[in-house]
Amino acid sequence: MGRGPTSKDVARLAGVSQSTVSYVMSGKRSISAETLRRVEEAMAALNYQPHAGARALAGSRTNTIAIVMPFASAYDAGQLMAFVEEFVLAARVHDYDVLLVTAEEGIEGLRRITGGRQCDAAVVMQVTAQDQRADLARTLDFPVIFIGVPEDTTGLACVDFDFEAAGRLLVEELADLGNTRLSVLGWGADSVGRDYNYIGRFARGVTGAAEAHRLPVDWHLAPAADGFAAVLDAGLHPDGGRTGIIMTAGLSGGMRALALRGLVPGRDADVVALCTEAEAEEQVVPLTAVSTQPRDVSRMVAERLFALIDAGCPAQEGVDIVPATLVRRASTGRA
Amino acid sequence: MGRGPTSKDVARLAGVSQSTVSYVMSGKRSISAETLRRVEEAMAALNYQPHAGARALAGSRTNTIAIVMPFASAYDAGQLMAFVEEFVLAARVHDYDVLLVTAEEGIEGLRRITGGRQCDAAVVMQVTAQDQRADLARTLDFPVIFIGVPEDTTGLACVDFDFEAAGRLLVEELADLGNTRLSVLGWGADSVGRDYNYIGRFARGVTGAAEAHRLPVDWHLAPAADGFAAVLDAGLHPDGGRTGIIMTAGLSGGMRALALRGLVPGRDADVVALCTEAEAEEQVVPLTAVSTQPRDVSRMVAERLFALIDAGCPAQEGVDIVPATLVRRASTGRA
DNA sequence: TTGTAGGCGTTATCAT
DNA sequence: ATGATAACGCCTACAA
């Protein structure tokens, strides 16, 4: 494998010193128009690409960001992809590349990457309430952004979707439609406060809004939502009441349960969901839904991260929240 | 941001020369048990991590592999994720990291990454019949593996799923079930030979097997499959015949079309698909299907790639094919 | 505006 | 079995 041209080769061809080539690239000092032209021509002629390793060594900047991804997780793959794509694009704009690290490597992965100076910053996805990586990050003196909110956010930079508002919006939509009770198919009330606290935040949003509207709520755990099936079998709208349905986890299972009983969303009951745009639109009846917006989250992460990098700070405490919005579709047909 | 300990620090603490530390890491010369112990203790005590850039510069090995990914493409996100996860895991086993490059960067992305020696090899996904990146790779003297098969594979290392066998298996299954004609909802006959030639290979598999079984086939282009809807409306089983359905692209649209007419796969018609396992199982009636196996492809790619890297070859011409298998589910209920 | 030179942290070739 | 030491390719004071 050929070694490829170096800045020295460029310099020779352009008839300048090697440092001039370097300064042409960095723009850190003024160059005469003539010199600039000659150097750029030489670079083009040789198809010169600076050696990333040498650059990292001398400049102590890798122009690489690591992103710690929870592959085999509860996350939806489409969401993950969208997030990553958007992030890579944003990174490229700043002339950064993206290194992939699996969450399975755990805390050691973070240590390895940061210790080896393979990157200038890291993004850690799907953070849990008690996340060891948060503790590590605090001691690291290295810019890390967390997606998700650990219990103790001291000294941490976090970004997350507004799950609480999501829960609230869904409840209010069903309330506005005249529903008098709610059936929630999701992570379930007993998951509140466990691992990922977005579950808890969503539940809080639902509960708060339901109380405000005096709507009784019954929760059913997906995917083994026998209770949910029982509700459907018992009749959704007993004695003049009207049951609105909220789906979070186990969407496809829930939709199947409805279909098997001949229940059509929007006709026989109002159904809303917390899911991706794609999921909402793929259903037999497209769902009115609040969609977590991975691209918005991604942009916010990128923005914040590059601010940190440019500032040279290790981290800048604070939780950024990406707003939630509801999109109406056919599953809440009547007005 | 602290500079972190160097091998020099380790050497000092262990009371040895810096080169000894290096040799302890590489194992390229024998070390006395005593020295080994002292060096390892020092490394642990300082939490030493070798500087990746310096290592790449001196050793001309990055221990990084770039993977060029088609984010916003026809690929299913779940497939992509599975592929990538499996690949990252395999890479880690060989002590390699993975750099993400978007296909949107096109040919320049490949050039940039390889030129800058940011990686020791690259994987290019979703290769088209006439792929510029293939031409570049041939001139590159750099190990590249392609997923997908360009028209001219001279000097190229390619891996792909056996789409032809997939088509054949699906047809044979429907034939065995007593169907007398086929309706295919997919990329359509006119897509054959265009961009991604797996479409053509799949079509060839279908056509070949259909001819062997003397089954007439009508093709319908997804997603605007009006023709498909017409077939459903015209009645699937005219005068004693029986129409088997094959779905490829536009699966959800096709399933919806059936559902809207009250047609249940496995009861009213045999339905088979080329899709992911997840898709096959998510449907209201789980589908008998041939599933592209991203993890199998990934493993084959990794295996081949590390063989190349270890051998120091730029590439090793040849097309590896990942076998196709059919899994029976409820959508072909009757025997 | 431009050139010179030292150093970044490894690897690998000499020696010993 | 181990120590010096010269690259590796680039960045950046320091000079001019």
Could you characterize what this model shows?
- Chains A, B: Keywords: DNA-binding, Transcription, Transcription regulation.
- Chains A, B: Residues 5-59 form the HTH lacI-type domain.
- Chains A, B: One of its GO terms (molecular function) is DNA binding.
- Chains A, B: It comes from Nesterenkonia aethiopica.
- 2 copies of one chain form a homodimer.
- Chain A is an alpha/beta fold.
- Chain A has 3 domains: 7-50, no CATH class; 64-161 and 294-322, Response regulator (Rossmann fold); 163-292, Rossmann fold.
- Chain A contains 13 helices and 12 strands.
- Chain A has a 6-stranded parallel sheet with strand order 2-1-3-4-5-11, with helices on both faces.
- In chain A, helix 1 packs across helix 2, helix 1 packs across helix 3 and helix 5 packs parallel to helix 13.
- Chains A and B meet through helix 4, helix 5, strand 2, helix 6 and helix 11 of A and helix 4, helix 5, strand 2, helix 6 and helix 11 of B.
- Chain A binds a DNA duplex (16 and 16 nucleotides) through helix 2 and helix 4.
